[in-house]
Amino acid sequence: MSIRIAVDGTALEGRDGQTIAGVLIGAGHRSWRTAASAERGVFCGIGICQDCLVTVNGVEGVRACQRTARDGDVIERESR
For position 65, what pLDDT does the model report? Predict the structure, then answer.
């Protein structure tokens, strides 16, 4: 089953059960956050490093590598 999420206003498709990071990587995104003037994406992939943080449905600081993407999620980049 496929799902659709919106990332900074752009619709992306993924598979049911994928993490947000998985959907982003599958769509060709390697970074989706800016911190200390550098682009960040998945680094550790297990939720320890916090490089993959995004805002999901208005909730800041969500780890994209751990959060399962759900149909209709609205994802926004974070800058810190």
Answer: 96
